[in-house]
Model the fold of this input.
Amino acid sequence: MKKLHLLFVLAALSNQLFAQKNVGIGNSSPVTKLDVSGAISLREGAGITVTSPGARGGANDNISLPDISGTTDVASFYHITGFTGTAGAFSIYGITPVTGANGQVITLVNSTGKVMTVVNNNSSTSANSIYTTTGANLVDNAASGTASSITLQYSLTAGGAGNPGWIVTAVQNYIIPVGTLSGTTVGNTSNANTLSTTVDGVTGSTVPIM
Done:
């Protein structure tokens, strides 16, 4: 009888939690769907090994994310740490998401010291594709001894309605292509990006771009 009573209590608690509009962790009055009072941690997964150079149609088309040690769950943060093949510049074409994971977020840190190219919507399985939003490939500045990072979020409409994939939301230590902006040359002088002519009434030979 006591066991039956406990089951009723657990069922009632489960229904109550399910019916809650917002959930609070560390507070009793959450104002958003998940309201955490305190720090959060996104665990790091095992290092990822890629194929170098990782040609189109190869192993880097649909990279699998390793599970967190001791679990069957993928992480949100990974270092790319090693290679199969030659240890040189490499390209990645696609990443396999968690099944049905609309909104999944991952950050990849290239710790290899070799240049990484993130290829826009190319040869991977359609649902694993990466979209850079500019339509151009992204090349990092990870020369020997440096690192870069890129953050991706999974979208069910990344490449248009009904075309899921990863959208690039942030990069660090990636190359900014030289080009023009409304007739003003964008160049690189002494390792600093500059505007070299009059811009919005400001004249100068070295106006730094932040």
Summary: Residues 22 and 38 are 16 Å apart (CA to CA). The mean pLDDT is 81. The longest strand covers residues 77-85.
